[in-house]
Amino acid sequence: DEVEAGLKTGDFLKSALRISSNYQNAFVSDPNGGSDLFIQGRKDQNRALPNDIVAYKIKPKEAWVTRKTGETQRTAEVVAVLDSKSNKRCAGVFAENMLSGVHSVDLLFVPCDNRLPRMLIAKSALAEDMAKKIKEIISRKIIFEAKIIEWEEGAQNARAVLTNEIGDPEDLQVQMDAILIDKSIDTRDWETFDVDDELPGKEWTITDEQVAKRRDFRNECVFTIDPATARDLDDALHVKRLDDNVYEVGVHIADVAFFVKPGGKIDKVASERCTSTYMPDRVVPMLPRRLCEELCSLNPLVERYSFSVVFKLDAEGNYLEEPWYGRGLIKSCVKFSYENAQHFIENPEEENIDESDFPEVLNGYSLETIRHCVLMLDMLSKKLREKRVANGCIRIEQPKIGFSWDEATKTPNGFFPYIRKDAHMMIEDFMLLANIAVAEKIERHFPDRAFLRQHPPPNQEKITEVVEELRKHGINIDHTSSRDLARSLEKVTQEVFFQSALSLLTVKTMQLAKYICTNDVEDRYDYRHYALAVPLYTHFTSPIRRYADLVVHRQLAAAIGWDESFETPAETLTEQAESCNERKLQAKLAGEDGSDVYLWCMIKRITKDSEFIMDGVVTGLVEYGLEILLHETGFTLRIYYGEMLATKYSIFEKNGYKAVAITWAKDNKPLGRDSVTNTPNKSRPGEALGTTDYAYFTPVRVSVVAGRDPGRLDGKLLPPAYLS
């Protein structure tokens, strides 16, 4: 009651708690739009866990802190957890040091996720065989799953019980299992759920009743374009020219809503998972594989139910009439890969095509027909893209990598960057077109309950800081609108290292896009999607892997007068939107952490025999060191002055921004650290090789090594090549 009263009066505020990797520090947002507030120490976190929704109060001014920039930052303390977002389960290992005193009867459990509290596990609770092997378990750092059962007020450590042994940390699969546990990803196999009665049998086929009700696209040249290894094909296209300047484009999406009924057992699990999770070694599907890969997947030469949007466009990508929305019936004639489509885009006039390089085209169509369709789609997509860019659409490219494998050891032996080519952008353009069109339709029909995708504008305080910092480097950025920001970024040099640093800097100012129910947003203007520069947007095109799209399919079915009503109340949609936002974020983080661990494993293997040198760029001067972005991978690491092969470092200002001068040592010995304070020495005796200045955007070379913990990379900054 006291907390509720405090929230009503404004004495307490509400926010999600963000705990940093240095678990002592945390932050909360100001719902009134001010800068973030700092929560210093576990005590003021008041036993809240990462992402918990908390009530907090702002501390008196005398307790505020001064940032390195000289600015004052407000501080706060958590008064209550309003909504716990953690399932209180985590992966971790036992600490090597034994506890003494009152806790000598316990073992200290250290979570893999540094943001979580250390935990006490009673020795008496261990199984007998485990108790006998505990020293070996500790020395080998065997990973376990634990669950918090109690955290007393004022206690430094929580109390937990072991729930499962995950395994040997040398096993990459074990590392992936640990990440999935830490991100609260439900990995239970669908076979453990009793859902067979909700799945059609193996002999299922389309029915005459559905054929009579649906628009028939089976005779159209419908095809899919996906990654070569994709098995869950949830979108397909058809295109044809109706007249000299008139084109019909059909976007056909798997009709998952036909099979997954609201309130059913499959729907309940899917609504909790909210998304499929993609790891380097596996996919954790949102839906049963019978649906993902068979009944809903738009595989070639099989009749499938679709939810379709059909556009009539001119050659400039303009609407000629309102799109047609409805349920359809399709039969794809080929599963094309992005590489197949890209070949046609890059070779539009090619003659004597070697058909053996492409999959077989079925359903009475030829490879030449597909080539013609791809080129039409490419032409239209480029016009659509031009229009979006002119409207102020902004896209910030960030590196994404994949891995090659050693088949014998099942470990990564190389990596490659994912490069977005015209074929990828072509499919994206038509998915965006359909998503925007569906958003407009459901918002008209459900103005107070539409399930949309909102992207707020950048954090004004952060982007103002970035713009000021860039100005010091001679870069002028206008952030008045997304169009102004996009045009400013276009004018900046296209050098890879520079673009990587600029992208990272810009991304840090952006807020996350999120699902909303329109009932929760007072001003319709705030439905906007900032990055896409459109007033309305939603997700419709991936219902096999995103629950939000399934909600939107149900709303669209009601909006077009199909025989289903949509009665879900706004309050339930709000809860589902929040769940989708949280699960989508955790799935994304799990995939990124998995990629980091695979990169760590690959570099660990390579550096046993040789150096692994990567190009990078300075993205910040941190306390006693540099932050470096490895632009091929998007990985950021910190290199400290004490470990640099130098005789001296000195911080100075240049044109208003901070820089550091590193004097490289001829003897190739590190600068070293003070034996008392452990801070880097300012200088040491030794002959100098030369001095180099480093600041934001300075390109560097780094000798990268695998750190002690999985997923962590360390590096040695190398002197410029001209000094070698």
UniProtKB/TrEMBL annotation:
One GO BP annotation of this record: mRNA catabolic process
Source organism: Oikopleura dioica
The name this protein goes by in its record: RNB domain-containing protein
One Gene Ontology cellular component: P-body
One of the record's GO molecular function terms: 3'-5'-RNA exonuclease activity
Signal peptide bounds: none
The RNB domain, residue ranges: 214-562
Any Pfam family matching the protein: OB_Dis3
SMART domains linked: RNB
InterPro entries attached to this UniProt entry: Dis3_CSD2 (IPR041505), NA-bd_OB-fold (IPR012340), RNase_II/R (IPR001900), RNase_II/R_CS (IPR022966), RNR_Ribonuclease (IPR050180)
